[in-house]
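For concreteness, we quote verbatim a single protein encoded this way:
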Amino acid sequence: MLKLLHQNCESNYHTNMSDLGFNKNNNSIQHVSDWFERNQCNSLLVTGLFDDIPGVSFFIKDREHRLIMVNAGFLPRLGLSQEELFGKSDFDIFPARLAEHFRRDDREIFESKKPKLNILELVFNSQGLPDWYLTNKYPLFNDRNDVIGLMGTVRPYGDGEKKELKWERDDEIGRAVNHIRNNFRGEISISDLVSISGLTHRKLHRGFVELFGIAPMQFITRTRIEAACDDLLSSTNKLSVIAKENGFYDQSSFTQLFRRQMKITPLKYRKQKGFI
Protein backbone atom coordinates (compact mmCIF):
# COMPACT_ATOMS: atom_id res chain seq x y z
CA MET A 1 0.00 0.00 0.00
CA LEU A 2 2.78 2.46 0.96
CA LYS A 3 4.79 1.42 -2.08
CA LEU A 4 1.87 2.20 -4.38
CA LEU A 5 1.41 5.62 -2.80
CA HIS A 6 5.11 6.24 -3.15
CA GLN A 7 5.09 5.40 -6.86
CA ASN A 8 2.09 7.62 -7.53
CA CYS A 9 3.12 10.62 -5.48
CA GLU A 10 6.80 11.03 -4.82
CA SER A 11 8.38 11.74 -8.18
CA ASN A 12 6.81 15.17 -8.64
CA TYR A 13 5.59 15.85 -5.12
CA HIS A 14 8.55 18.01 -4.14
CA THR A 15 8.09 20.10 -7.32
CA ASN A 16 4.39 20.69 -6.68
CA MET A 17 5.00 21.63 -3.08
CA SER A 18 7.65 24.12 -4.13
CA ASP A 19 5.52 25.61 -6.92
CA LEU A 20 2.73 26.25 -4.44
CA GLY A 21 5.08 27.94 -2.00
CA PHE A 22 5.05 25.15 0.60
CA ASN A 23 8.85 24.92 0.77
CA LYS A 24 11.47 27.61 0.62
CA ASN A 25 14.43 25.29 0.09
CA ASN A 26 13.68 23.16 -2.95
CA ASN A 27 17.31 22.11 -3.32
CA SER A 28 17.23 20.35 0.05
CA ILE A 29 14.01 18.59 -0.89
CA GLN A 30 15.53 17.52 -4.21
CA HIS A 31 18.58 16.10 -2.42
CA VAL A 32 16.38 14.11 -0.03
CA SER A 33 14.18 12.81 -2.86
CA ASP A 34 17.24 11.82 -4.89
CA TRP A 35 18.72 10.04 -1.89
CA PHE A 36 15.58 7.93 -1.39
CA GLU A 37 15.43 7.09 -5.08
CA ARG A 38 19.14 6.27 -5.31
CA ASN A 39 18.90 3.90 -2.35
CA GLN A 40 15.56 2.42 -3.51
CA CYS A 41 14.01 3.38 -0.19
CA ASN A 42 10.32 4.10 0.21
CA SER A 43 10.21 7.66 1.53
CA LEU A 44 6.76 7.17 3.04
CA LEU A 45 8.27 4.75 5.56
CA VAL A 46 9.31 7.89 7.45
CA THR A 47 5.68 8.09 8.52
CA GLY A 48 6.70 5.59 11.18
CA LEU A 49 8.32 8.53 12.95
CA PHE A 50 4.84 9.71 13.89
CA ASP A 51 4.38 6.57 15.98
CA ASP A 52 7.01 7.85 18.38
CA ILE A 53 5.85 11.46 18.65
CA PRO A 54 3.48 11.69 21.65
CA GLY A 55 0.04 13.02 20.84
CA VAL A 56 0.56 13.37 17.07
CA SER A 57 -1.64 11.43 14.65
CA PHE A 58 -0.91 11.06 10.93
CA PHE A 59 -3.34 10.08 8.16
CA ILE A 60 -3.66 9.72 4.39
CA LYS A 61 -6.92 9.95 2.41
CA ASP A 62 -7.71 9.39 -1.26
CA ARG A 63 -9.69 11.72 -3.51
CA GLU A 64 -12.93 9.95 -2.51
CA HIS A 65 -12.34 10.96 1.13
CA ARG A 66 -11.51 7.37 2.11
CA LEU A 67 -8.81 6.72 4.70
CA ILE A 68 -5.83 4.88 3.26
CA MET A 69 -3.75 4.72 6.39
CA VAL A 70 -3.13 6.26 9.80
CA ASN A 71 -0.18 5.90 12.13
CA ALA A 72 -0.30 3.39 14.97
CA GLY A 73 -0.96 6.09 17.56
CA PHE A 74 -4.23 7.05 15.85
CA LEU A 75 -5.68 3.52 15.83
CA PRO A 76 -6.63 3.26 19.55
CA ARG A 77 -8.62 6.50 19.27
CA LEU A 78 -10.56 5.08 16.33
CA GLY A 79 -11.00 1.61 17.81
CA LEU A 80 -10.08 -0.05 14.49
CA SER A 81 -7.19 -1.99 13.06
CA GLN A 82 -5.32 -0.76 9.97
CA GLU A 83 -7.15 -3.37 7.87
CA GLU A 84 -10.57 -2.42 9.26
CA LEU A 85 -9.85 1.25 8.72
CA PHE A 86 -8.84 0.99 5.05
CA GLY A 87 -11.48 2.50 2.75
CA LYS A 88 -13.68 3.98 5.47
CA SER A 89 -14.79 7.61 5.28
CA ASP A 90 -15.07 10.14 8.11
CA PHE A 91 -18.82 9.50 8.18
CA ASP A 92 -18.14 5.85 9.04
CA ILE A 93 -16.05 6.83 12.06
CA PHE A 94 -16.89 10.27 13.44
CA PRO A 95 -20.07 12.13 14.47
CA ALA A 96 -21.84 13.75 11.53
CA ARG A 97 -20.92 17.26 12.69
CA LEU A 98 -17.21 16.49 12.62
CA ALA A 99 -17.43 14.50 9.40
CA GLU A 100 -19.07 17.47 7.69
CA HIS A 101 -16.27 19.77 8.84
CA PHE A 102 -13.61 17.31 7.64
CA ARG A 103 -15.31 16.86 4.26
CA ARG A 104 -15.59 20.61 3.69
CA ASP A 105 -11.90 21.15 4.45
CA ASP A 106 -10.90 18.24 2.19
CA ARG A 107 -12.88 19.63 -0.73
CA GLU A 108 -11.25 23.03 -0.30
CA ILE A 109 -7.81 21.43 -0.47
CA PHE A 110 -8.70 19.34 -3.54
CA GLU A 111 -10.00 22.42 -5.36
CA SER A 112 -7.30 24.89 -4.36
CA LYS A 113 -4.35 22.46 -4.47
CA LYS A 114 -3.08 24.24 -1.40
CA PRO A 115 -2.61 23.09 2.20
CA LYS A 116 -4.96 24.07 4.99
CA LEU A 117 -3.13 24.67 8.24
CA ASN A 118 -3.95 25.16 11.91
CA ILE A 119 -7.55 23.97 11.64
CA LEU A 120 -9.03 24.16 15.12
CA GLU A 121 -11.54 21.35 15.76
CA LEU A 122 -13.65 20.69 18.84
CA VAL A 123 -14.12 17.03 19.79
CA PHE A 124 -16.11 15.77 22.77
CA ASN A 125 -14.52 12.89 24.64
CA SER A 126 -16.29 9.93 26.24
CA GLN A 127 -16.97 12.02 29.38
CA GLY A 128 -18.71 14.69 27.29
CA LEU A 129 -15.90 17.19 27.88
CA PRO A 130 -14.64 19.32 24.98
CA ASP A 131 -11.11 18.81 23.70
CA TRP A 132 -9.55 21.06 21.06
CA TYR A 133 -7.32 19.63 18.32
CA LEU A 134 -5.14 21.29 15.71
CA THR A 135 -5.08 19.76 12.21
CA ASN A 136 -2.81 20.40 9.22
CA LYS A 137 -3.71 19.00 5.79
CA TYR A 138 -1.63 18.88 2.59
CA PRO A 139 -2.60 17.80 -0.95
CA LEU A 140 -0.97 14.77 -2.59
CA PHE A 141 -0.14 14.97 -6.30
CA ASN A 142 0.53 12.49 -9.07
CA ASP A 143 2.95 12.94 -11.99
CA ARG A 144 0.36 14.96 -13.92
CA ASN A 145 -0.03 17.50 -11.12
CA ASP A 146 -3.49 16.14 -10.28
CA VAL A 147 -4.52 16.05 -6.64
CA ILE A 148 -5.13 12.38 -5.83
CA GLY A 149 -5.59 12.70 -2.08
CA LEU A 150 -4.27 14.40 1.01
CA MET A 151 -2.22 13.74 4.08
CA GLY A 152 -2.30 15.42 7.45
CA THR A 153 -1.48 15.52 11.13
CA VAL A 154 -3.69 15.98 14.18
CA ARG A 155 -2.51 16.90 17.65
CA PRO A 156 -4.06 18.21 20.86
CA TYR A 157 -4.04 22.00 20.94
CA GLY A 158 -1.31 22.42 23.54
CA ASP A 159 2.37 22.61 24.20
CA GLY A 160 2.87 18.89 24.79
CA GLU A 161 5.07 19.29 27.88
CA LYS A 162 3.95 16.02 29.52
CA LYS A 163 0.38 17.31 29.24
CA GLU A 164 -1.64 17.11 26.10
CA LEU A 165 -3.76 20.23 26.38
CA LYS A 166 -2.83 23.78 27.21
CA TRP A 167 -5.76 24.20 29.55
CA GLU A 168 -4.44 21.35 31.65
CA ARG A 169 -1.51 23.59 32.61
CA ASP A 170 -1.72 25.18 35.99
CA ASP A 171 -1.51 28.74 34.69
CA GLU A 172 -4.04 31.56 34.58
CA ILE A 173 -5.59 30.89 31.18
CA GLY A 174 -5.33 27.15 31.75
CA ARG A 175 -7.44 27.38 34.91
CA ALA A 176 -10.06 29.51 33.14
CA VAL A 177 -10.35 27.15 30.17
CA ASN A 178 -10.48 24.09 32.41
CA HIS A 179 -13.39 25.71 34.26
CA ILE A 180 -15.19 26.21 30.94
CA ARG A 181 -14.51 22.60 29.92
CA ASN A 182 -16.18 21.27 33.05
CA ASN A 183 -18.99 23.82 33.39
CA PHE A 184 -19.97 25.07 29.92
CA ARG A 185 -23.42 23.48 30.24
CA GLY A 186 -24.15 25.70 33.24
CA GLU A 187 -23.91 29.42 33.92
CA ILE A 188 -20.48 30.97 33.42
CA SER A 189 -19.70 34.66 33.69
CA ILE A 190 -16.57 36.60 32.82
CA SER A 191 -16.30 37.56 36.48
CA ASP A 192 -16.12 33.84 37.31
CA LEU A 193 -13.20 33.42 34.92
CA VAL A 194 -11.48 36.52 36.25
CA SER A 195 -11.76 35.19 39.80
CA ILE A 196 -10.58 31.68 38.88
CA SER A 197 -7.69 32.83 36.69
CA GLY A 198 -6.54 35.74 38.84
CA LEU A 199 -6.25 37.89 35.72
CA THR A 200 -7.79 41.25 34.97
CA HIS A 201 -10.56 41.42 32.37
CA ARG A 202 -8.11 42.85 29.84
CA LYS A 203 -5.43 40.19 30.38
CA LEU A 204 -8.03 37.42 30.33
CA HIS A 205 -9.39 38.67 27.01
CA ARG A 206 -5.91 39.04 25.52
CA GLY A 207 -4.92 35.56 26.69
CA PHE A 208 -7.91 33.91 25.01
CA VAL A 209 -7.40 35.83 21.78
CA GLU A 210 -3.72 34.86 21.67
CA LEU A 211 -4.45 31.20 22.41
CA PHE A 212 -7.69 30.58 20.49
CA GLY A 213 -8.22 33.64 18.32
CA ILE A 214 -11.52 34.46 20.02
CA ALA A 215 -12.69 36.23 23.19
CA PRO A 216 -13.70 34.27 26.33
CA MET A 217 -17.45 34.55 25.78
CA GLN A 218 -17.04 33.56 22.13
CA PHE A 219 -15.07 30.54 23.30
CA ILE A 220 -17.88 29.57 25.68
CA THR A 221 -20.56 30.09 23.02
CA ARG A 222 -18.67 28.13 20.39
CA THR A 223 -18.16 25.25 22.81
CA ARG A 224 -21.89 25.20 23.62
CA ILE A 225 -22.93 25.36 19.97
CA GLU A 226 -20.59 22.54 18.95
CA ALA A 227 -22.03 20.44 21.77
CA ALA A 228 -25.56 21.34 20.64
CA CYS A 229 -24.69 20.26 17.07
CA ASP A 230 -23.86 16.80 18.37
CA ASP A 231 -27.11 16.68 20.36
CA LEU A 232 -29.15 17.77 17.33
CA LEU A 233 -27.79 14.88 15.29
CA SER A 234 -27.72 12.22 17.98
CA SER A 235 -30.98 12.75 19.86
CA THR A 236 -34.63 13.56 19.26
CA ASN A 237 -34.77 16.09 22.09
CA LYS A 238 -36.70 19.30 21.51
CA LEU A 239 -34.73 22.46 20.79
CA SER A 240 -35.75 23.92 24.13
CA VAL A 241 -34.27 20.89 25.93
CA ILE A 242 -31.04 21.01 23.91
CA ALA A 243 -30.75 24.73 24.57
CA LYS A 244 -31.14 24.26 28.33
CA GLU A 245 -28.78 21.27 28.51
CA ASN A 246 -26.02 23.20 26.76
CA GLY A 247 -26.09 26.34 28.86
CA PHE A 248 -28.23 28.68 26.74
CA TYR A 249 -30.66 31.04 28.43
CA ASP A 250 -33.63 29.87 26.36
CA GLN A 251 -34.52 28.49 22.92
CA SER A 252 -34.67 31.95 21.38
CA SER A 253 -31.16 32.82 22.54
CA PHE A 254 -29.91 29.43 21.39
CA THR A 255 -31.40 29.86 17.93
CA GLN A 256 -29.99 33.37 17.54
CA LEU A 257 -26.45 32.41 18.57
CA PHE A 258 -26.55 29.14 16.62
CA ARG A 259 -27.57 30.92 13.42
CA ARG A 260 -24.86 33.54 13.91
CA GLN A 261 -22.13 30.88 14.08
CA MET A 262 -23.52 28.14 11.82
CA LYS A 263 -25.32 30.40 9.28
CA ILE A 264 -28.44 28.24 9.67
CA THR A 265 -31.08 27.68 12.34
CA PRO A 266 -30.87 24.63 14.63
CA LEU A 267 -34.04 23.13 13.14
CA LYS A 268 -32.82 23.57 9.55
CA TYR A 269 -29.44 22.13 10.54
CA ARG A 270 -31.15 19.03 11.91
CA LYS A 271 -33.42 18.67 8.86
CA GLN A 272 -30.56 19.30 6.45
CA LYS A 273 -28.64 16.40 7.95
CA GLY A 274 -31.64 14.13 7.58
CA PHE A 275 -32.37 13.67 11.27
CA ILE A 276 -36.01 14.79 11.00
About this structure: Confidence is low (pLDDT under 50) at residues 1-15, 22-26, 159-169. The CA atoms of residues 36 and 43 lie 6 Å apart. The chain is about 50% helix and 15% strand.
